[in-house]
Design goal:
Order of helices and strands: HHH
Oligomer: single chain
Keywords: Membrane, Transmembrane, Transmembrane helix
Number of helices: 3
Shape: rod-shaped
Radius of gyration: 22 Å
Distance between the termini: 24 Å
Protein name: Early nodulin-93-like
Structural class: mainly alpha
InterPro entries: Enod93
Pfam family, one: ENOD93
Amino acid sequence: MAKNAAEITSLASLDQKLAIAKRCSHEGVMAGAKAAVMASIATAIPTLASARMVPWVRANLNPTAQALIVSTVAGMAYFIVADKTVLATARRNSFNQSQLH
């Protein structure tokens, strides 16, 4: 009987940890997406403006290069912010778990 109770407790704990991990990754995705949008806007405006006004940029950066600049910055912002958010949330949850025990 004790073994069944321990298994049930273990499964409940595992389900709780899985729910926390899903919430943690969801927070990371949302924060990363917001950062990617902001980085795209912050990069696209000066890139497109300089492509219209600066002669060297006009001559050397075609539209593909401009899109590559914007998408690279957006991708980097997404992964950096998502990673930092997931790690911070996991650390916070780790401290919360240790305080409960």
